[in-house]
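Final report, results section. Input specification for complex C-07:
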Amino acid sequence: MTVRVQIEDFDAGFEIRQLRYARKDVGAVVSFIGQVRDINEGDAVAELTLEHYPGMTEKSLNAIITQAKARWNIMDVLIIHRVGTLQPGDQIVLVAVSGAHRGEAFAACEFVMDCLKTEAPFWKKELTQSGERWVEAKAADDDAKERWNK
Amino acid sequence: MKIKLFYFARLKESLKYSTEDIVLADGAWTILKLKALLAQRGDVWGHMLMGKLKVRAAINHELVHDNAPIADGDEVAFFPPVTGG
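Structure output:
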């Protein structure tokens, strides 16, 4: 498993190929990319800045992958999350999961994202025409995470 | 006992602190007790830590609840609900 927290952009195609080529018994790679939107809560967003808690972030992401691997029969999980100041259209996060078959890889990828959204210590601040504002956590994200506990 | 404190995001900005080392009186300490102590520093502290805004806490990089015990040498962090991804 691989966890990277970085300022630099990433090449999702390259990262997915790495998972595909790592083993010949990989039958499926499922991936998710999150990117910066130019609008939020009805306001135009010019810039998004991500802050995190170094040390805890990596530990939290590794713990999420460990849980996913215990729950589903998957082979590998990669998480790349960017920090710093990003522009609309920029990539924020990549989660990629390899496995023998698609079903478990799909489930594990969604689980990792739902946990990341509610547990990993990242915070977004956006720049709009009326100034800077911290992005509020959404109840829908808590609900998305909660359904895995049922 | 001595602990290291970290603040992130909105808390860091409003409290104008990112980190500090503090010495706590002998006795049993929890996250809630620590928040109550810090809240006495003034209006902003009370508002940010004991007000209506949701505050999350971590001890040694693990998310914890208000009743979690704090031990000597712990790294304690306060921050708003996370918004990554």
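Chain A has a mean pLDDT of 97. The two ends of chain A are 26 Å apart (CA to CA). This concludes the modelling results for the funded period.
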